[in-house]
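Newbie here. two chains, one complex. Structure please?
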Amino acid sequence: MSLLTIKDLSLGYENMTVVDGLNFTVEAGDYLCIVGENGSGKSTLMKTILQLQKPLKGEVLVGDGLLSKEIGYLPQQTVIQKDFPASVKEIVISGCQGQMGLRPFYSKKEKEIARKNMERMGITEYKDRCYRELSGGQQQRVLLARALCATRKVLLLDEPVAGLDPKVTLEMYEVIKKLNDSGITIIMISHDIGAAVKYATKILHIGKEIFFGSKEEYLESDEGRFFLSQKDGENK
Amino acid sequence: MIEKLIFYFQYPFVRYAVIVGVLIALSSSLLGVTLVLKRFSYIGDGLSHVAFGAMAIASVLKMADQMALILPITIISAVLLLRTGENARIKGDAAIAMISVGALAFGYLLMNIFSTSSNLTGDVCSTLFGSTSILTLTLEEVVICVVLSIIVVVVFVFLYNKIFAVTFDENFASATGTNTKRYNLLIAVMIAVIIVLAMNLVGSLLISALVIFPALSAMSIFKSFLKVTVCAAILSVVCAFTGIIISILAGTPVGSTIVAADAVAFAICYLAGKLVGGRA
């Protein structure tokens, strides 16, 4: 069975349907990029996969030994976090919270997981620094380390490079690529179609027309060619 | 001066006031950090007005045990207010404003129409500013206060890590399997309990100060959640203690003296934070 199976999903707000009849699967080791225009329902889809929101119709099935709470999540930054007094260490270890159940305090095991993931993201040297004093790229690494504490299998990334400068953006993509190479399934929402076709193995394009398939198929498809030519036009 | 203090401490009501004051200050400051960070500072204010309204109803009904009515009403309002806050921030804001002024108006109206007291303005004033009620506590009230605030502190310590996760990023916590609804509910209930307790100490108009000042003072100096929480608790306890002592010695109203002490502490912390921040 696939890690994630999306069956005949309809998304939207109240009585307005944004996406209808969405079907796709995510296999272990995939690097899936979800692309589409603003308001096409990308974030809603992500919230539905994370069970933060109920779908209008259809269902999201998890399989292959994955529990729905074992999906790591890299959200977009909220206003609350901008001036939140917390050290890097505190934030990273809070990623373990979901597996704690009712147990109130962190044990050696969680501290070890947090330490390893900070090392993996190269943020060990800032572990006592305050989150709000870090640069945008460093903050993303902290949140990524936290997401890794919550999962060993799947990461959902919501616009992970929004607001980062080109150099840090590139570093971020390399970090994500490395995680994918080490066996973690990546599902990423992105505006950056160039990076999507460069790194992803599969593409989901949502909008008026829905496309789901491998990157190669996407580049050949009408949606892909149209979307890519538009983006090229923007860049020129 | 010390002799005068020792003299006053021989009276049980003075000792009660100090014990209750310190415990209430401790529990309110703990949750204050979460409230300020979640942008819910106003909820304390709104709830205190609801508690005032409930108290007016209780006194009109001539209930012997006013707590039995005030506490449930405040808890229900806290749960409702936090729930609207989840759905839409701005609507939640307006809801708080509406409920808080509404409760205040109806409370005063009820007291005005039905009260048999000859000194109505004085009654209202002391509920709003808590002028002397802390010095007139009965042993029973003291015990309730002590038990409730110890429960709040213990629950807070045990839920500390979960409260952090829910405060920092509710969506992430919920997506990765933390039952955020349950903890939000618990936070709401604890706030309501603190508000009702604190009414005795500083009166319903000044409660927000007890919740917000220590948190803001600590946040302007420290940069980790643990340090901020501990510092807020210590500051709040010190300010409450100093405030009560000063009010006894100088004969000033207890509530306003404590809040004044909190405000002075905030000014000092803010300046200290600016100086240290400028150097680092």
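Moderator note: Chain B touches chain A through 30 residues (CB under 8 Å). The CA atoms of residues 22 and 212 of chain B lie 16 Å apart. Thread marked as resolved.
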